Write a sequence for this structure.
């Protein structure tokens, strides 16, 4: 903002203060104070603004989750074009994982945000023995954002992990 633009601003800003009570079963009641420039209470109810607030924080959590789960805190590339490619690779990996999470959530009548990203990655890693070698190689490549490696060996070649045929649930065996 230039000095002229700053000087052209009003000396004060009129805001509306709101207090909203968030109640969620199994959690403590939280009171949140809002300050907004949306002054018309008939057009912008407290409940509407509380929903927007909650959605905004969900976006913040999603961005934090993306950075943490996809190991994007420190990007490894140096040039701007390679940094963009690295970010794209992370976003593609994240999108594929979220796609599978959404499909699972729909199948089980729940919201995708309640499914663990880490559990989704672990499940994909557990069942990766059924994928083509080139897919597993792509998943294992550096910078893909996957926190664990994917094994393309069959269950007989990997004694630490086998699949139970009756329900396809992972069973860990000890030696």
């Amino acid at each position: 903002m230039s000095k002229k633009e700053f000087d052209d601003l009003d000396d004060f800003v009129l805001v509306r203060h709101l207090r909203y009570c968030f109640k969620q079963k199994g959690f403590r009641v939280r009171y949140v104070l809002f300050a907004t420039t949306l002054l018309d209470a008939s057009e912008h109810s407290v409940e509407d603004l509380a929903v927007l607030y909650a959605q905004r924080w969900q976006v913040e959590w999603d961005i934090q989750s993306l950075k943490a789960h996809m190991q994007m805190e420190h990007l490894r590339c140096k040039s701007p074009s390679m940094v963009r490619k690295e970010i794209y690779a992370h976003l593609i990996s994240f999108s594929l994982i979220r796609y599978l999470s959404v499909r699972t959530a729909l199948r089980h009548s729940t919201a995708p945000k309640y499914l663990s990203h880490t559990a989704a990655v672990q499940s994909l890693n557990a069942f990766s023995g059924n994928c083509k070698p080139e897919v597993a190689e792509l998943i294992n490549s550096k910078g893909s954002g996957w926190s664990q490696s994917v094994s393309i060996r069959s269950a007989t070649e990997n004694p630490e992990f086998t699949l139970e045929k009756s329900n396809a649930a992972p069973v860990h065996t000890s030696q």
Observations:
- The chain has two domains: 1-60, 81-175.
